[in-house]
Amino acid sequence: MRLDSGYENRRARIEIIPLIDIVFLLLVFFIYAMLSMTVHRGLRVELPSASTAQVDKRDYVDISINKDNQIFINGVRVALDDFTTEIFKAGNRDKPVFISGDQRADLGLAISILDRLRKAGISDVSFETRQEE
């Protein structure tokens, strides 16, 4: 004897709720992956603050000056005499340059670096600061 349960006559259907859950999970994954791809090449320095500071997310060359007046290009320590050759070694002629100096570093060293960059023909130079609170 065969019993009729009623499921034999139903058509297959796609459930929307689990599909929405999967789409949101993928969305969160890709947003998190994109945010984790942000690379900071410089050193941890205590930046001076400025009220007109703006955020720029382009690919750039980071020149860091720590509190002991040591110079780093993208995290690699260089001497002031070898500074311009190291900038051109990495093929960074067309990229913007950000100078991030510790607020306890000498201003004269930062100006000297800026002068050497201008003599080398690099004019897209900015000083990195943090926004005032």
Textual characterization of the structure:
- The protein is an alpha/beta fold.
- The chain has a domain at 49-131: Nucleotidyltransferase, domain 5.
- It has three helices and seven strands.
- It has helices spanning 16-36, 83-89, 107-119, and strands spanning 49-50, 61-65, 71-73, 76-78, 97-101, 125-127, 130-131.
- The protein has a five-stranded mixed beta sheet with strand order 4-3-2-5-6, covered by helices on one side. Strands 1-7 form a two-stranded parallel sheet.
- β3 (71-73) and β4 form a beta hairpin.
What is the level 1 CATH name of the domain at 49-131? Alpha Beta
The CATH architecture of the domain at 49-131 comes to 2-Layer Sandwich
Poorly predicted segments = none
* Integer-rounded radius of gyration: 27 Å
Major β-sheet profile: 5 strands, mixed
- CATH topology term of the domain at 49-131: Nucleotidyltransferase, domain 5
Key features?
alpha/beta; five-stranded mixed sheet; 31% helix; elongated; two-stranded parallel ribbon
Please provide a brief summary of the model.
By secondary structure, the chain is of the alpha/beta class. Helix content is 31%, strand content 17%.
Helices and strands, with pairings:
Elements: H1 16-36, E1 49-50, E2 61-65, E3 71-73, E4 76-78, H2 83-89, E5 97-101, H3 107-119, E6 125-127, E7 130-131
Parallel strand pairs: 1-7, 2-5, 5-6
Antiparallel strand pairs: 2-3, 3-4
